Each structure stands twice: as C-alpha cells, then as structure tokens.
Amino acid sequence: MQFSNAVQSNLEAFASNMKMPFTPQQDGSLSFLLSESGELTFTPVNQGHSLVVSLGRAATSHSMNRNEAFLRKAGFRPELGNNLHAARSKDGMAHLAVSYNAVQLSPALLEQTVDFLIAEMDKL
Predict the structure, then answer these.
(1) In 8-88, beta strands by DSSP E
(2) pLDDT (tens digit per residue) in 17-32
(3) Is residue 73 within 8 Å of 122, Cβ to Cβ?
(4) What CATH number did the domain enclosing 67 receive?
C-alpha cells in the first residue's frame, strides 16, 4: 500500500526538514534507523489516507514493574491530541505508536510526534 498524495507530501516535507531521505520500502512504509533513538517507521493504513508513526527500541529492562509502567503509557495524550499505543514484542523491543489521518497531518505535527515518542522512550 502506498501513501495518499496528501500524506506523502507531508512526509516528504518532514523528511526534507530533518535532512533524511524519502525512500519508501516495497510495502510502502518509510523507516529510519536513528542511532540514539531506535527505529522510526511511518506505515500507510486506511488505503494510504492515514499513517501510523511508530518508534521501536530494544528494552533496557525486562522487569515486570518496568513493563507495566511502559504499557501504562498507552492512552489519550493531550500533547498529541490523539491516542498513544504501547507494546512489547516477543523479541524484547518496546514500541510506541500514534496514528493520524491525512486531514490532521502537517510536517510540524510529524516532528512534534517524533520528538514526543523519543522523549517517552528516553524515560524508560
């Protein structure tokens, strides 16, 4: 699935502002490996008219208390005006994600979201 023109233009502007290449994968997603922050991925959904912004990083702690605290990050976040999703994968990766539709998007919102996801991961 590819991004719609509206979503793609916002992603291209975001990538340009961040000095990152805009090179979608075969599945239509766009991924960046950030040296200090983890893997940032933009995935098209809803026939490309929406996207999921996610950040995945190797978990630094596997204690039950830390896992529960991480998963409690999920829920509506006023800073984003949207729901934050949190998950742990079987391989020990921690993932945070937010979805937006094309109407909500702007390069500034994408940058704010990425900054938010990185800051939340840094709290782990």
Answers:
(1) 30-34, 38-45, 50-58, 75-77, 82-88
(2) 999 999 999 999 999 9
(3) no
(4) 3.30.1460.10
Q: What are 85-108's pLDDT values in tens digits?
A: 999 888 888 999 999 999 999 999
Give 54-90 pLDDT, tens digit per residue. 999 987 666 666 778 888 889 999 999 999 999 988 8
Name the residue range of residue 113's domain: 5-122
Provide the number of structural domains found in the chain.
Answer: 1
Judged on CB neighbours under 10 Å (0-12, 13-18, 19+), 99 is middle
DSSP 3-14: PPHHHHHHHHHH
Q: Which helix (H) or strand (E) holds 68?
A: helix 64-71
**Which pTM value belongs to this model?**
0.90
Gap between the Cα atoms of 42 and 120, Å rounded: 18
CA 79 from centroid of its chain's CA atoms: 15
Q: Give the separation between CA 65 and CA 22, rounded to whole angstroms.
A: 38
